[in-house]
Amino acid sequence: MSKTLHNGLQILELLTGHPQGMTLTEIADGIGVHRTVAHRLVRTLEAHHLCRRDRFKRISLGNGLVRLAEPVEQDLRTLARPILEELGDLAQATAHLVVRENERQVRMLMIVEPRQGRMHVSFRPGQIDPIDRGSAGLAMLAAEPPVPGEREEIALARKRGFAVSYGEIASSVIGVSAMVPGREVSIGLSLFEAPDEEALGRNVIEAAQRLGALLR
């Protein structure tokens, strides 16, 4: 194994958990190398646009990672679209695909609006939301082991297999989401009314399982 490559990848993984950026010293301490070594690694990653420094010299992930991830996410979107279309039409609601951005945030990767239905929720693809707000993030947290002080909604989602939120991302909008097995991705619905949470939950679980089977 290449130790240099290993250290460089460690830096990227470390920065994933610090969206506000880190100092060079924090990075060196975080991966257990001398500051001079960390400096060379960061300069190399900067040259490939995999990390960047702001005007305060804090280092964060760079836009080059988006280019690298695009083929993977494109495949994900291609496989997910027909499943989201069917889910949205079934519930006559907006269906969404959400990915985990880092420890604190999730990103709306794909939105599919129902082809029928008088009213539906509209979101902007690429929207970033806190992981502890909204059904998509709650479903992801429910897939992890319980932690002290976690929200009751997370424990309930862990028990039911799907998460529900009310007005947390947008006022008056209900979210119902389930995790795609083996992935840090959720499939869900956004709607104005949820008269039968269990039925909606079964629908999103089935959709998530179908996508999971395609991604194996």
TrEMBL record:
Protein name, entry field: Helix-turn-helix domain-containing protein
InterPro entries: GAF-like_dom_sf, HTH_MetabolicPath_Reg, Tscrpt_reg_IclR_C, Tscrpt_reg_IclR_N, WH-like_DNA-bd_sf, WH_DNA-bd_sf
Source organism: Amycolatopsis rhizosphaerae
Gene Ontology terms for molecular function: DNA binding; DNA-binding transcription factor activity
UniProt keyword annotations, A-Z: DNA-binding, Transcription, Transcription regulation
Domain IclR-ED: 57-216
Keyword Hydrolase tagged: no
Protein origin, superkingdom: Bacteria
Domain HTH iclR-type: 2-63
Pfam families given in the database record: HTH_IclR (PF09339)
GO annotation terms (biological process): negative regulation of DNA-templated transcription
